Task: structure prediction
Amino acid sequence: MPTLRAETRPFDLLRIPILGRFLRWRHARTVLQGGMLGLAILLILDGLFGPQIAPRNLAGVLPWVHWRGFVVLALLIAGNLFCMACPFMLPRRLAKRLLPAGRPWPRPLRSKWLAVGLLFVFFWAYEAFSLWQSPWLTAWVAITYFVAAFVIDGFFRGASFCKHVCPIGQFNFMHATVSPLEVGVREPETCSDCATKDCIRGRYAGTSAVPADRPAVSSMGGGGSTSASGIATPPGPLALDSASGTVRLPEVAPPPAMASPSVGSAHDEPAGRGRLVQNGCELWLFQERKVGNVDCTFCMECVHACPHDNVGILARVPGAELWRNPWRSGVGRLTERPDLAGLAVLLTFAAFVNAFGMVRPVQAVLQALGRALGSPPEALILLAFFAGALLLLPLLAMGATSASSRHFSGGQEKLTEIGTRYAYGLVPLGLGMWSAHYLFHLLLGGLTIVPVFHAYLEDLNLAAPGAPAWGMGPMIPETWLFPVQVLLLQGGLAGSLWVLLRIARREHGDTTRAKRAFAPWALFVTVLFATGIWLLLQPMEMRGTFMVDG
Amino acid sequence: MTRRGSLSPVPFVLLLLLAAGCRGDAVDEAPDHEVRISVAPTPPIMGSARVVVQLSDGEGLAVENAQVTLIGDMAHPGMTPVEEDLEQEGGGRYATSDFDFTMGGDWVLSARIQLPDGRRVERSRSVEVVSLDARDPT
Result:
């Protein structure tokens, strides 16, 4: 079985005395989601009804300072913790009860391309509508998210919203590849001997945890009803089609698509199976064949479902899954997923473009672009800018680097194949830039939540005596910020160089040819890194179009 | 069968919604009063600036002996605001010559005023602050 972990027994977060016990608790995720849901409700209410000055509104501070900062922090030091605590999934449970959630996700949309498109729209809208300085719009973004998750998962099987739609989820999935923890199998042999595969099927009332009368399942296969392209297929016999990479469940198994979180609802009672009491993985990641963090929401369903207590949150080599290329349940091979590679490239370039939107030179660029286009509305200028910066420039840069890599290594492959192989090497640097940007805001303004929340309570006549301490803000001395940012970016560069070198060695062996194939990619990420340093040195000028009447 | 011990979140959410609805944008207990906020130099440059708040009542008469606090917020959340009590200069003018724009970009200036009769007024305007190195080198 493919694994990215060390041979020795790795660190397991679930073995930690208090935290591990909490995370193993069946309702732990609901508690975390409940807390986040409470914050989301406060955000929406204050965004809609509170003062429309972003620094004084929970809808300004909570998402754009704290949530983004803690997301990247969690990815850097642990894993995809924010999908674990995602509040949008709570109303979705109701949707699974109320709506006919049995439709398969449309075949043309079974990839990451839709999410790539949504991410592009979001990055453009963030600047075009200055979401960061509009609490009202921010509240509506949150409301739209709740509605979208509710409707999509109310009509479609499993966690279609998470797997195919959610832009935030894709950000987390991709960057969690660099995280030090993953949800994985403790003892592979235990999975080989397991006859029930509850981690993917779910568990049904009236069935014993480990029934002896079920047919044994081939250890080479893995449930998940997914193909190498991430395509969900109807359940069938559990077997691995080596040609297509498709894995199917045995006929006796309840379809994972039926394993919704609406435990006990009418939708969860396939004939003869009884009532569903525990979901399996709704993103069709079969633990026995699961590799890494792509598409894993850390929902812990597999942990709770496993009758052998054989799933943990395990330490692994950060980023190793980016250069290793085994077949992955629910994902397939990374080298056969141009959509995932496209997602990696878009997110990497977006990290730099998003930061570029906050420094002074962007004004000159947009003004020049506006003049060249005949002074159209600002939203159209920004659309042209983002089309150039997030689509055209990456396409040209990836194409040129792939061509150079092929030329120097003497290869014959298509440029798209080379680009798809090496695109994942950009992810560490992308996360480095996102972290340098988002942690800057968190470290500089993390404590502003104190006076903002104080003012919120004060306006509701619920505050303690005393005025809000508006002077609170930085969490560390401001002189530390730049060194921290540079350190994060350097870490990203080092990670990218290492991943790209390992990819080159994977493709060409430890040869001179590998070094030649690697060289153009090394230059590519070094140029990106230098761009990042230049961005960090620019004077910040946070501008938008939102006006307050005088 | 009845469920015991379950606490529905619906009343709590409704209460919160009701309470949040009471949270207005800015206090304005004297809507007939006029408040003008002006900044010099124009456009303001990162660093110290002179800010004047001109206050007059509904009949256009200057209002004296008010307490005026000026708050500057960066448009982006997470930046520490700048807060300054303004000094009365006469003729309804309240000013500071040392308001510190700590960063270039969009700012929102809010004048928080307590009138002599105790009523409160808050008015805001946005200003674009130019970075030091963004000035014309000539």
Q: What stands out?
A: Chain A has 21 helices and seven strands. The two ends of chain A are 66 Å apart (CA to CA).
